[in-house]
Write a structure and sequence with these properties.
Low-confidence stretches of chain B: none
Oligomer: heterodimer
Mean pLDDT of chain A: 89
CATH topology of the largest domain in chain A: Glutaredoxin
Strand content of chain B: 15-25%
Distance between the termini of chain B: 77 Å
Largest sheet of chain B: 5 strands, mixed
Shape of chain A: elongated
Strand order of the largest sheet of chain A: 2-1-3-4
Largest sheet of chain A: 4 strands, mixed
Mean pLDDT of chain B: 95
Number of domains of chain A: 2
Number of strands of chain B: 18
CATH architecture of the largest domain in chain B: 3-Layer(aba) Sandwich
CATH superfamily of the largest domain in chain B: NADH-ubiquinone oxidoreductase 51kDa subunit
CATH class of the largest domain in chain A: Alpha Beta
Number of strands of chain A: 4
Number of helices of chain A: 8
CATH architecture of the largest domain in chain A: 3-Layer(aba) Sandwich
CATH superfamily of the largest domain in chain A: Glutaredoxin
CATH topology of the largest domain in chain B: Rossmann fold
Helix content of chain A: 40-55%
Radius of gyration of chain B: 24 Å
Largest interface: A-B, 42 and 61 residues
Number of domains of chain B: 4
Shape of chain B: globular
Distance between the termini of chain A: 41 Å
Order of helices and strands of chain A: HHHHEHHEEEHH
């Protein structure tokens, strides 16, 4: 993304939120929705356009778990470690995902394809254990379902999963 | 939709809606349902109905509570009771449509209890004991209406409470009604709702604000998500009434960013309510003007703490501040602010419509009304249940949810999440009330109820919960920041088999310090899971000590 592109994106976000009190977090959400993370250049531009010191922006960004400071790669694999998922074997799923992708939680594969992370409860505890790949939610995840969704060379995450879910839940 | 007036709303209430003269097929389309494949089922049903030229309606609805049986499909033929199916596949969806089209009996496989068989509905009398155990006040419309259609909410009496309040009640009347009803905060602590409302109303300030706390951070709890997704207008109606009572012009929904569907449905509800004249300037043609905006959380458990939530709404780090001053006196931007839980607000319209006398008779003692629980973990039928308070833990876990999901007996139940406590199987006959759960060393909490079986390791679980609180500690006060880490280190030592007798004493001492000296509920509550584990399962800790092993 070019510097002008960032300036334009930030200008639009700033226009939407600047006049509203306390809206820094909403503006940061908008940035992350746009890029998948909050790029440093964008944070700096936001600070200038919304008249917020950069230190304030980073104090907020680093406090909240939801915000990412680095590009997560194409597919964000989130394994839920909420209590229900924990009891139903999520730690093993996390380990398996980590071994399959060859990265620790919080890391991104060298080719930029996958980012692995832990989430605290996505609110689908009745279908535990759950994992998500980008927007897609996988329910009652087994080793097989996980493997099918993390298979090397697999182009589209959604297609394989729709099959895996159909009728199994 | 044209802007409505009080008179029009009153007229609307008097009109009885005829039952549809065609089959109605509803699909549960909340996050759980979609994860289990409801979208494919919904699409298939639509295509089949069209392909066969069948005169039937395929509709979406919210969470019926039987999450482990998703995708759920309810079929209602004219003049017949509704039939519910669970674990529906695209293939089976075709069979359902075929039966409707060919006038054949509905398939008998995949049947699960219908909502009517599971629960009584808001407004019905308390009963004598032969009816279903569940009683749905908060979840009255979940799994029944299309949450994206304001008309369906209004056809079930929606916004009639607001009409009554604006048409014939003063703010003081509403507060009196809440007091008589005995509603207590459903976020966990159980503070009397009427008192919170009165304190905020009575506080001096330029701009009173009402906030709905939808930042459901407790892992293992998702009641609020289901209500926001399944019946957004119910929460909004409670909030509009709340704004009138405390004299607010502005309200905020503070919702977890991790709940995109809930956010989307609330935003849609806000647009619909504005268009109908139920929100915005001169609501229902009266002098009352009130606006609501959505603000997103960003993954910080501590923001469930009122003062931290306010800091987050102001765009800052979510660190708590000492109380007093309470938010009811000095909250958002230093102004009187009332923060209510999703479930508390969803109760409100029902108290207004059906009356405090009806409400106060449901429940037990000082715990009036119902509570929604997300029962999960090693239980056969994981899902949401709404029960009158006073029902026992055993009736919920074994009666409604079918007991252990494995062949292994249940060992314990955890309520109150990372600030709550373990309750051993031997205490399952305890009635669920605010007071009884505290006596057991746990607390009501927001509604997570996690079931553990005999294979679950209590020491590891204690570590799991404590680890969560250590991760989520905001770091502002030392007792929580340092105490939690220290305690975790000692627990690790015990779990690894290197602990001594003195370590157990250290844990208890640290817990005491954290409970007494932490700034907010996160630090004060963090030792609870460990303490309750020690209270009921101390031998499991002792078995790992060095002296025992050698």
């Amino acid at each position: 993304m070019s510097a002008t592109q960032i300036e334009d994106d930030v200008a639009a976000i700033s226009k939407r939120w600047k006049s509203k009190r306390g809206s820094l977090i909403m503006a940061l959400h908008a940035l992350q929705d746009r890029y998948g993370y909050v790029p440093r250049d964008a944070a700096m531009s936001l600070g200038e356009q919304m008249d917020v010191p950069l230190a304030r922006i980073y104090e907020v960004l680093t406090f909240y778990n939801y915000f990412r400071l680095e590009s997560p790669g194409k597919h964000v694999v989130s394994v839920c470690l909420g209590t229900a998922c924990y009891l139903k074997g999520a730690p093993n799923l996390l380990k398996r995902a980590s071994e399959t992708l060859g990265i620790a939680p919080g890391e991104t594969t060298a080719d930029g394809e996958y980012h692995l992370q832990v989430v605290r409860c996505v609110g689908c505890c009745g279908l535990a254990p759950v994992a998500t790949i980008n927007e897609l939610l996988l329910a009652k995840v087994t080793d097989e379902i996980l493997d099918a969704n993390l298979a090397p060379g697999r182009v589209d995450a959604a297609a394989a999963t729709a099959g895996a879910n159909d009728g199994k839940a | 939709m044209a802007k409505l007036t009080i008179a029009e709303m009153q007229a609307r209430a008097a009109v009885e809606k005829p039952a549809p003269g065609m089959p109605v097929i509803k699909v549960g389309m909340s996050t759980c349902g979609m994860a289990a494949g409801a979208e494919a089922v919904f699409a298939t049903l639509g295509q089949e109905v069209q392909a066969r030229g069948l005169d039937a309606r395929v509709a979406r609805t919210g969470c019926a509570g039987m999450c482990s049986m998703e995708p759920l499909v309810e079929v209602k033929l004219p003049g017949e009771p509704a039939v519910m199916y669970g674990g529906v596949t695209a293939d089976f969806a075709r069979q359902i449509v075929a039966a409707c089209a060919e006038n054949k009996p509905l398939p008998t496989e995949f049947r699960v209890p219908s909502i009517g068989q599971l629960a009584r509905v808001s407004g019905e009398p308390v009963g004598t004991g032969s009816e279903p155990k569940q009683y749905r006040i908060v979840m009255r419309n979940c799994g029944v209406i299309d949450p994206e259609e304001i008309d369906e909410y209004m056809d079930r009496g929606g916004y009639q409470a607001l009409t009554k309040v604006l048409g014939s009640m003063t703010p003081e009347d509403v507060i009196e009604e809440l007091k008589a009803a005995g509603l207590r905060g459903r976020g966990g602590a159980g503070f009397p709702a009427w008192l919170k409302w009165k304190l905020t109303r009575d506080s001096e300030g330029e701009e009173h604000t009402i906030v709905c706390n939808g930042d459901e951070g407790d892992p293992g709890a998702y009641m609020d998500r289901s209500v926001l997704e399944g019946d957004p207008h119910a929460v909004l109606e409670g909030m509009i009434i709340g704004g009138y009572v405390i004299g607010a012009k502005q309200g905020y929904f503070y919702i977890r960013a991790e709940y995109p569907l809930a956010i989307q449905r609330i935003e849609k509800a806000l647009r619909q309510a504005r268009a109908a004249g139920l929100l915005g300037n001169n609501i229902l043609g009266t002098d009352y003007s009130f606006n609501v905006e959505v603000r997103l959380g960003a993954g910080a458990f501590v923001c469930g703490e009122e003062t931290a939530l306010i800091a987050s709404l102001e765009g800052k780090r979510g660190t708590p501040t000492p109380r007093p001053p309470y938010p009811s006196v000095k909250g958002l931007w230093g102004q009187p602010t009332m923060i209510n839980n999703v479930e508390s607000l969803a109760n409100l319209s029902q108290i207004i419509v059906h009356g405090s006398e009806w409400f106060s008779k449901i429940g037990l003692g000082k715990s009036a009304g119902t509570k929604v629980f997300a029962v999960t973990g090693k239980v056969k039928h994981a899902g949401l249940v709404e029960i009158p308070m006073g029902v026992t833990l055993r009736e919920v876990v074994e009666g409604i949810c079918g007991g252990s999901a494995t062949s292994v007996p249940i060992k314990a139940v955890q309520t109150g999440g990372p600030s709550g406590g373990l309750i051993p199987a031997a205490a399952l006959d305890t009635p669920i009330t605010y007071e009884d759960l505290i006596k057991l060393g746990s607390f009501m909490g927001s509604g997570g109820m996690i079931v553990m079986d005999e294979t679950d390791d209590i020491v590891e679980l204690s570590k799991f919960y404590l680890n969560f609180c250590v991760d989520e500690s905001c770091g502002k006060c030392a007792p929580c920041r340092i105490g939690g880490t220290q305690m975790l280190r000692v627990l690790d030592k015990i779990a690894d088999g290197n602990g001594t007798e003195a370590d157990i004493a250290t844990i208890k001492r640290l817990a005491n310090a954290m409970q007494k000296a932490s700034l907010c509920g996160l630090g004060q509550g963090a030792p609870n899971p460990v303490l309750s584990a020690l209270r009921y399962f101390e031998p499991e800790f002792r078995d790992r000590l060095v002296s025992v092993k050698n």
